[in-house]
TrEMBL record:
This is LacI family transcriptional regulator. SUPFAM superfamilies: lambda repressor-like DNA-binding domains (SSF47413), Periplasmic binding protein-like I (SSF53822). PROSITE patterns: HTH_LACI_2. Signal peptide: none annotated.
C-alpha cells in the first residue's frame, strides 16, 4: 500500500484476512469479536496509521450521574456541563445517552464507546468492563480524569476577601467530596500565604440534605466577618438561612458562593461568586473522551489527569470592605 495514501477499512480487512464488517465491529467495540481477531485488527491499524471515522450511528457516549430520580438534571452545574459536553460531542459525530448510577444494567446491555462519570461510586465497576472511562472533577488513581483547579478557584475568593480587610473567614464545604477536599486545602494555603492562620472552628462540613439554618447557626456563633460557601445549589438555602437568622449581607457578613452562577445573581443582594468556565470544561471533557475512545489505535495516549485553570471571580454586591465600610464589589447584578 502507498504510505502516503490514507488507509481505509478495506485495507485493514485485506491485511487481516477478515471482512470489512469485522473491522467495523472491532472499532465499534462489538462484543461478538474474538480477542485474537480484535488484537490483530488493531495491530494492523496501528501499522497503517489508520484512524477510524467516528460516526453518530457507530459511536455512543454514556454520561452517568447520580440517580436521575434525585433531580440531578435540575442541578445548574450538571445542566451547564451537559450542555457544553453534548454540543462538542455532537459536533464530532457522537451520540450521548444520559442515565443514573441506579441504571447501571442499562450500560451493560448497550455498546458504549466510552463513559463520562460525574461521580465516582461505580467507576471501578465500569472500568472492569473494559469501557473507557473519564471522571469529571473526581480523581481515582490510575483512571483518566479532567478536573478544575479547585485550589486556585477558591484562592481567588480568599484573596478578594483579604484585600477587603477580612481575616475571620469561614468556609462551608460539602463532606466526603474530592473537590471539597481540594478547596479546603486551597483555602488554608491561600490564608497562610497572606499571613493568616486558618481557624478550624470556621470550617463547617455539611451534606446537601442538611438544614441550612442549623449550618449557618453553627458558623455564626464564632462570628466570622465573611464566609465562602461551596456547592452547586448553595445560594438559595444560604440566602434563606440568613433571612431566618436576621443576618444582614454584606453589612454583618460578607458572602462569596462557589459554583452557583445561575442562582447567585438573583439573590438579595446579588452574590459574588466563583464559577467554572463550563464552555472550557465541556470542550475539554468531549475532546478527552473522544481521544480515549480512539486510544487503542491512535497515539499519544491521553494523560491520566488533566487540570484546567478555568475559574473566575464574578463580583456583585455581597462583599463589604470592612476597613472603609463600603461595598467592595463592582455592583454587577
Amino acid at each position: 500500500m502507498n504510505p502516503s495514501k490514507q488507509a481505509k477499512t478495506r485495507d485493514i480487512a485485506e491485511a487481516a484476512g477478515v471482512s470489512t464488517a469485522t473491522v467495523s465491529r472491532v472499532f465499534s467495540r462489538h462484543p461478538y469479536v474474538s480477542e485474537e481477531i480484535r488484537q490483530k485488527v488493531l495491530e494492523i491499524a496501528r501499522k497503517l496509521h489508520y484512524a477510524p471515522t467516528i460516526t453518530s450511528s457507530r459511536y455512543l457516549i454514556g454520561v452517568m450521574m447520580r440517580s436521575i430520580d434525585e433531580g440531578i438534571l435540575f442541578n445548574p452545574y450538571h445542566n451547564q456541563l451537559l450542555h457544553h459536553v453534548s454540543q462538542e460531542l455532537f459536533r464530532r459525530g457522537f451520540n450521548i445517552r444520559i442515565f443514573g448510577e441506579n441504571q447501571l444494567p442499562y450500560l451493560h446491555k448497550h455498546s458504549f464507546a466510552g463513559v463520562i462519570l460525574t461521580d465516582s461510586t461505580v467507576a471501578e465497576e465500569i472500568r472492569e468492563s473494559g469501557i473507557p472511562v473519564l471522571l469529571v472533577n473526581r480523581v481515582i488513581p490510575g483512571m483518566h480524569s479532567i478536573v478544575t483547579d479547585h485550589r486556585e478557584g477558591i484562592a481567588l475568593a480568599v484573596r478578594h476577601l483579604l484585600e477587603n480587610g477580612h481575616r475571620r473567614i469561614g468556609l462551608l464545604r460539602l463532606t466526603d467530596n474530592w473537590g471539597s477536599n481540594e478547596r479546603e486545602s486551597g483555602f488554608r494555603s491561600a490564608l497562610k500565604q497572606m499571613g493568616v492562620e486558618p481557624d478550624s472552628s470556621l470550617i463547617i462540613q455539611y451534606k446537601e440534605a442538611d438544614d441550612p439554618v442549623r449550618i449557618v447557626q453553627q458558623l455564626w456563633k464564632f462570628r466570622p466577618t465573611a464566609v465562602i460557601a461551596e456547592g452547586e445549589t448553595v445560594g438559595v438555602p444560604l440566602n434563606y438561612a440568613f433571612y431566618r437568622l436576621g443576618i444582614k449581607v454584606p453589612e454583618e457578613l460578607s458572602v462569596i458562593t462557589f459554583e452557583d452562577p445561575m442562582n447567585s445573581q438573583y439573590m438579595t443582594p446579588p452574590q459574588t461568586t466563583v464559577f467554572q468556565n463550563f464552555a472550557v470544561l465541556g470542550q475539554a471533557v468531549a475532546e478527552t473522551i473522544a481521544d480515549l475512545c480512539a486510544s487503542e489505535f491512535r497515539w499519544p495516549k491521553v494523560p491520566e489527569c488533566r487540570v484546567l485553570n478555568c475559574s473566575q471571580l464574578i463580583e456583585r454586591k455581597s462583599v463589604r470592605n470592612i476597613r472603609s465600610g463600603v461595598l467592595a464589589d463592582k455592583g454587577k447584578s
